[in-house]
Design brief:
1 helix; Porin; single chain
């Protein structure tokens, strides 16, 4: 059994609680030196993996962790100089020969700065997994229904000014599917944020 799914859920839970705490602190005292304000939007690119686990903690298909690449887009508003509310669409995809597997999550999130260039984020929303198999003369597509999703992340603004930041970010998320199946995304990547 892989330890990655547990780490992903732990990261998502911890960052969600941390971001909520940061939002509460931001209402009383903003981090010194933080300059962002107004509307915000961003994009991200990452590499990592998709994994699946059943109710007994077993890997769904026996293949273990599956490498994947991901894209994200986010838009929202700074509610204080130390906290933002945003909507985000984040997808991870694995390609292997004739098989493609992807999970897309659309979530509402809170991002809170715990230091001038260090942020935590977390949120809830929905997820959908799609599997495509190419037979050469056609495709078989299996798409799940929308299910609840949890996401979390931590990031460092490597380059930052009043209107722009280049983020190094670690993100984790899980879709909670029927029959107690869980599909996990884990990604390390770069993000561009504009304020």
């Amino acid at each position: 059994m892989s330890n990655h799914p547990f780490a992903a859920i732990l990261l998502a839970s911890t960052t969600t609680l941390g971001a909520l705490g940061a939002l509460t602190r931001a209402a009383h005292a903003e981090p010194s030196g933080h300059r962002h304000s107004g509307a915000t939007f961003g994009v991200g690119l990452g590499v990592g993996h998709i994994d699946c686990e059943d109710a007994d903690g077993n890997d769904c298909d026996g293949d273990g962790v599956t490498s994947a690449f991901g894209l994200a887009a986010r838009a929202g508003v700074m509610v204080s100089r130390g906290a933002a509310l945003a909507g985000e669409a984040w997808g991870m995809r694995h390609d292997e020969g004739d098989l493609d597997v992807e999970q897309l999550m659309v979530t509402g999130q809170i991002r809170g700065w715990v230091a001038p260039q260090l942020w935590l984020q977390g949120g809830v929303g929905v997820a959908r997994t799609t599997t495509r198999y190419d037979f050469g003369i056609g495709q078989a597509v299996d798409e799940s229904t929308l299910v609840p999703a949890l996401v979390g992340g931590v990031g460092v603004e490597v380059v930052s000014d009043r209107t722009f930041a280049l983020d190094l970010e670690l993100k984790a998320g899980s879709g909670l599917y029927r029959d107690d199946l869980r599909v996990y995304n884990l990604s390390l990547g770069l993000g561009l944020s504009f304020y």
